[in-house]
Amino acid sequence: VSAAxxxxxxxxxxxxxxxxxxxxxxxxxxxxxxxxxxxxxxxxDSRAEAEYxxxxxxxxxxxxxxxxxxxxxxxxxxxxx
Length: 81
Fold this sequence. Notes:
The chain is mainly alpha-helical. 65% of the residues lie in helices and 0% in strands. It is built from 5 helices and no strands. Helix 2 crosses helix 4 and helix 3 packs across helix 5. The longest helix is centred in the middle third of the chain and has 13 residues. The radius of gyration is 14 Å and the shape is globular.
């Protein structure tokens, strides 16, 4: 990987995520899988990350019960009590 490629990836990762755009691009029926990949892609150790997951779940019409089930399946902290 070249320095330019590495810098490009870093810049992209530093950009805020367009949650609505991301959710809107998810093919119907793949919402759960996309949510799972988002959970696996973060450490879930900050309020901002929990808020991102909440927004993503909301935009993809995943209810709190389903979100908690996903978190339990993955063995990670729930975002809903």
